[in-house]
Amino acid sequence: MNFHTEDVATTLPARYYTDPGVFNDELEHFYCQTWICAGRVGQIPSPGDYFLREFAGESIIIVRDDRDRIQAFFNVCRHRGTRICPSAEGRFTGRIQCGYHGWTYALDGRLIGAPHMHDSFSREDYPLNRVHADTWDGHIFINLAAQAEPLAKQLADLPQKFAHWRMGELKLYRRVSYDVRANWKLIILNYNECLHCPILHPALNAISDYLSGDNDPPHPSYIGGSMEFHDGVQTMSRDGKLRRAYLPGLTEEERHKVYYYAVYPNLLLSLHPDYVMVHTLWPRAVDRTEVICEWHFHPDEMAKQNFVGDDAVEFWDTTNRQDWGISELSQAGIGSRAYRPGPYSRRENLPRAFDQMIRNRQKAHS
Ligand code: FES
Ligand SMILES: [Fe+2]
User: Fold this and answer.
1) pLDDT averaged over the chain?
2) What torsion do the CA atoms of 23, 29, 35, 36 make, to the nearest 10 degrees?
3) pLDDT at 307 over 90
């Protein structure tokens, strides 16, 4: 049968993966004008604790202030613009001081010291430039836009949908950072289909059914769905055995599935019966993305003497590397002069929906 071209959804043209102009435009829109996941509340448990997030040429300080609020600021001194904080994480001792001429800021961003300024100088006029910050269930989100819609609006029904995992209670067990030579969108596309699982992930395919589960209808803020285990399998690990209690709060159905959601633009949530894996994507160039992967477990389990988490880490670290490897090969092939957009199958509906979202956005902004 012959299809008209409009009947066949195709992958995006090469420029979406190779053109630095398209890349910068996407960075500006997705990373600088919407809410992005910056990290976890547990990274900054005490007043003064901070970490930096660097993307799109910006450096953002995320800090817990004296009143236990999470604040975010551009890492730019209001005196002569110097980057104030050079270290990726640490603890400010009650104040944030620029290393150039000593302008000093409170943890809530107020300028509290400006040596040598004239008498009529008003400190109130020079606080740190604020970035919107909010949290969802243990995840910190930031938004660089001057006017930001509420985080809750962008997240839509996700907080309700994933309330049973009680992510805010979970604790970090392991963090691994990967440098992937592929465009950020290729990583999202790879994450959202498992037709590649039998070929690329034999270990994963042995324990979960790649054609099982349901996808949600694509939402403007996210895409995702669930996958079921094979009979007798209890979680995602090399042997599929459960080595920890189920997360409290899950229904019987939720104990038998893994839920995979890409929350635009940079959060991949993989919700397991006994742990949660979180990827955040940090585009570094049109063909390069830093991926930070974290494994979070319930603190009651982690407190047990015989707690193990490495089965989950090793399983997904192997799977991650397989996914990054194929994403790098995708990037390499799409860069060829021979590349033309190729046809999606009807089972690749989430990647198709993601591409459509990208196309629609570009249309709306051109
Ligand atoms: S540039 Fe920061 S104190 Fe002068
Ligand atoms: Fe994969």
Assistant:
1) 95
2) 0
3) yes
pLDDT in tens, 37-68: 999 999 999 999 999 999 999 999 999 999 99
Who contacts 257 (Cβ-Cβ below 8 Å, separation ≥6)?
A: 213, 226, 227, 228, 229, 273
Distance CA 255, CA 272 (A): 8
What is the spatial distance between Cα 15 and Cα 67, in angstroms, rounded to a whole number? 47
83 lines ligand 1 (CB under 6 A): no
Burial-class residue 212 by CB neighbours within 10 Å (0-12, 13-18, 19+): middle
C-alpha of residue 71 to centroid of ligand 2, in Å = 35
- Distance of CA 314 from the midpoint of ligand 2 (Å): 15
* Any atom of ligand 1 within 6 Å of the Cβ of 105: no
Cα–Cα distances (Å) from 356 to 15, 92, 118, 285, in that order, read 15, 44, 56, 22
What's the average model confidence in pLDDT over 330-356? 96
Mutate to test the pocket of ligand 1, among 101, 112, 123, 126 (most ligand atoms within 8 A of CB): 101
